[in-house]
Design a protein that fits this description.
The complex is a heterodimer of chains A (337) and B (378).
Chain A: E1 6-21, E2 26-42, E3 46-50, H1 57-64, E4 72-78, E5 84-86, H2 92-98, E6 102-105, H3 119-129, H4 134-147, H5 164-176, E7 182-186, H6 194-211, E8 214-219, H7 222-228, E9 231-236, E10 239-245, H8 246-251, H9 256-263, H10 304-308, E11 314-317, E12 320-322
Parallel strand pairs in A: 3-8, 3-9, 6-7, 7-8
Antiparallel strand pairs in A: 1-2, 1-4, 4-5, 9-10, 10-12, 11-12
Helix pairs in contact in A: 3-4, 3-5, 4-5, 5-6
Chain B: H1 2-5, H2 8-11, H3 17-21, H4 24-33, H5 36-53, H6 55-58, E1 79-81, E2 87-101, E3 106-130, E4 134-143, H7 161-197, H8 199-214, H9 217-227, H10 234-265, H11 268-275, H12 280-316, H13 328-334, H14 338-342, H15 349-372
Antiparallel strand pairs in B: 1-2, 2-3, 3-4
Helix pairs in contact in B: 4-15, 5-7, 5-15, 7-8, 7-10, 7-12, 7-13, 8-10, 9-10, 10-12, 12-13, 12-15, 13-15
Classes of the chains: A alpha/beta (337), B alpha+beta (378).
Chain lengths: 337, 378
């Protein structure tokens, strides 16, 4: 049973995509996009989920909402009524009813808004799906438009009339319509200009404070994550390799992969000489990952044991988890926050 | 509070007021109106369909009305200036006479300038039922008897070709639509199944389509047309031909529907609707169907001419609509001999009408396609 303040408890979540070959579509292997991932989200926190593209962070986010059916594992969500439900065990109709408790902000503000619906109907869609019509529906949409900073007078327009940043505000308003507890933000700012990114990040932070939202913030950009998250999880080839409070993770990373990622973060000081750790080789192929620790072929601290045994995700210091055999021994370099 | 969040980008939404609140449909219509040729084709087709529907009224004579003295008469010349070089605002025709050339046994037609008949609107002629309801004998234009006016000449039995073309166009224009309607239902159904469910159903239907498309069209048509019983009435044959054309015509549409469904299914906004708890049926009606209606319209417009050509080809080969029923194909069938080309070239005029109809549909389809393309800015 999860602790009181835990909103989402993910246990051993796996998503394997079968690789099919030939005319009769024989399954010849699996892409382990999400491989035995466990973590908890506390109510009211923003958890960052970072990793290279293809590491499975988007898949993980979508599995939690069951936009993609997970292969195995448990996803326990505490609802408004305080009841804890396992999202993976719900049938279609039960899941549809639970949709008001969780929603998603999309990466692409263009393809995520239907070009054939007015902004009013786009924002109101979750409400429409619950059967709300008429004045209550319009009032709520107007309220939301005001909350996210859209001009209420523009609600009868179509999305083609809005800029990327405005469209993302529309997308955010849509996720808030039914007052969900859990929001999965799937790289909500990576498709936007840097100047707009700041606006949207501030908006998300304001909203989080105002409504006590719990957000799983998926990103590939550590500098974005730094400002907005309470804790950060780092993913590599379908697994979480490190999970900690944001500040601690940045100052004292415990996993060599995190160290390499942090060293690549650009520093806002032109005089500062940075020497990023350039990782050798390619990201491991999730269809045939290397033996032992998936990171060992690229790890500069790798030793014999790393090629043979996969390290489990263990608590190194209170609240700081890392999956490395030498997490205690290595003193890795972080970056000042 | 709200104003503090309103970034500079949020305020920049103002501009040409109409553009922002224009729906997809209005935008398409705006772009379409700028495509001159397509708009012209659209109105031309409207006129042609009106002429075909009101064929009895618009034609000077009935489809089977024979003029005994005028076999293979060339198109009657319209005159504005008479023998005394006087200009008449109302065009007129001279009396047409003919005599048999005893050497070649050909009829020679000549104008007898002593008698003239002016062209009039709303002339009384053969009686008919307008739209199958109102009994009348009014024709849109013509000349008073005993004068004759054949805008496109007459055929071997002395029937006015222009009138017959209007009746033929009715059959041909609507056989296309009817065939399309059948094909539309089939294509939407199989394409929908294929695209929505995917997997084994999809594979099966796609292989079936590939099989149908790999069959040579003409022999297949001929085989299917041979199945239409010879004793059927022209109306039934007409129906049968539509079915024959539809049996093959649906495959292209099914592919379009499948492709569109598959690409739309992957769109983020469909996933967003699903994650918002919208029911599957509502996703289909609210998002998927409106997502490709414009493509359907374009595809259908471009498919009409192939249906019309199909009917024309089948009738030309004597496999489709048979005389006495009139279609553009049967009219061309009557023209398929060397005598026509050398002596009575006006018998080929229905072929010109086929070309015009097909081109008009193609231009209209092009215009609609460009207008429905959201990435094309005119």
């Amino acid at each position: 049973m999860p602790a009181d303040d835990v909103l989402l408890d993910v246990k051993s979540l796996c998503k394997y995509f079968p690789i099919e070959k030939g005319l009769i579509r024989r399954v010849v292997g699996h892409v382990k996009a999400v491989d035995d991932v466990s973590f908890q989200l506390r109510a009211g926190e923003i958890l960052g989920l970072v990793g290279e593209s293809g590491c499975g962070k988007t898949t993980l986010g979508r599995c939690i909402l069951r936009a993609i059916e997970p292969t195995s594992g448990e996803i326990k969500l505490k609802t408004h009524s305080g009841e804890v439900v396992d999202v993976t065990k719900l049938n279609k109709e039960q899941l549809r009813k639970l949709r008001r408790e969780m929603n998603m902000i999309f990466q692409d503000p263009f393809s995520s808004l239907s070009p054939r619906m007015t902004v009013l109907d786009i924002i109101g869609e979750p409400l429409w799906a619950q059967g709300v019509r008429g004045k209550a529906y319009e009032d709520r949409v107007k309220e939301l438009a005001d909350i996210v900073g859209l001009n209420v007078g523009h609600l009868n327009r179509y999305p083609n009339a809005f800029s990327g940043g405005q469209r993302q505000r529309i997308g955010i308003a849509r996720t808030l319509t039914t007052n969900p507890n859990l929001i999965i933000a799937d790289e909500p700012v990576s498709a936007l200009d840097v100047s707009i990114q700041a606006q949207i990040l501030n908006l998300l932070q304001d909203l989080q404070e105002e409504f006590g939202l719990t957000i799983l913030f998926v990103a590939h950009d550590l500098s974005v994550v730094e400002h907005i998250t309470d804790r950060v999880a780092v993913m590599y080839v379908g697994k979480i390799v490190e999970l900690s409070e944001t500040e601690e993770l940045y100052l004292q990373p415990k996993h060599p992969y995190t160290e390499a990622l942090l060293s690549a973060v650009p520093k806002p000081d032109p005089g500062l000489k940075s020497e990023p750790i350039v990782l050798q080789g390619e990201v491991a192929n999730p269809a045939s990952p290397p033996s032992g620790c998936y990171f060992h072929p690229r790890c500069r601290y790798a030793q014999e044991i790393c090629t043979q045994q996969a390290p489990p995700l263990e608590e190194v210091s209170p609240g700081h988890y890392a999956a490395c055999h030498f997490a205690d021994e290595l003193s890795l370099e972080g970056v000042p926050v | 509070m709200a104003s503090s969040r309103l970034g500079p980008a949020a305020a920049a939404g103002d501009g040409e007021a109409g553009y922002e609140i224009a729906s997809q449909r209005q935008l398409i219509w705006r772009k379409f109106r700028r495509h001159r040729v397509a708009v012209f084709s659209f109105y031309l087709l409207l006129v042609l369909y009106a002429l075909a529907i009101l064929a009895e009224f618009c034609s000077p004579y009935g489809a089977f009305e024979r003029h005994r003295g005028y076999l293979f008469a060339p198109p009657t010349k319209l005159h504005f200036i008479d023998q005394e070089r006087r200009f008449h605002l109302r065009p007129f025709v001279y009396k047409v006479t003919n005599e048999l050339d005893m050497e070649t046994f050909q009829r020679k037609y000549a104008e007898d300038t002593s008698e003239s008949y002016s062209l009039r609107l709303f002339v009384r002629g053969e009686s008919y039922k307008l739209l199958g309801v109102f009994k009348t004998d009014l024709h849109l234009f013509g000349v008073e008897a005993p004068g004759v006016f054949f805008p496109a000449g007459t055929d071997a039995l002395g029937r006015d070709l222009f009138s017959r073309m209007l009746f033929g166009a009715r059959t041909s224009l609507f056989v296309g639509l009817l065939g399309l309607a059948f094909g539309f239902v089939l294509g939407l159904f199989f394409g929908g199944l294929s695209g929505y469910y995917g997997g084994g159903v999809d594979t099966l239907i796609q292989r079936l389509i590939e099989f149908l498309q790999s069959l040579p069209t003409l022999p297949l048509w001929m085989a299917l047309a041979a199945l239409v019983p010879a004793r059927w009435s022209p109306i039934q044959v007409y129906f049968g031909i539509s079915l024959v054309l539809a049996t093959i015509g649906w495959t292209g549409l099914a592919r379009v529907v499948r492709g569109k469904l598959i690409s739309l299914r992957e769109e983020d906004y469909i996933l967003a609707a699903k994650l918002s708890g919208v029911r599957e049926r509502a996703i289909i009606t609210r998002h998927l169907l409106p997502g490709f209606t414009s493509y359907l319209i374009v595809h259908l417009t471009l498919a009409v001419p192939s249906m019309i050509l199909g009917e024309t080809a089948l009738s030309f080969l004597g496999l489709g609509i048979r005389p006495p029923a009139v279609s553009l194909g049967t009219l061309l069938q009557e023209a398929q001999n060397i005598q026509t080309v050398t002596l009575n070239p006006w018998m080929l005029i229905p072929g010109g009408l086929v070309v015009i109809i097909v081109l008009a549909f193609n231009f209209l389809g092009d215009g609609l396609r460009d207008a429905a393309d959201p990435y094309k800015h005119v």
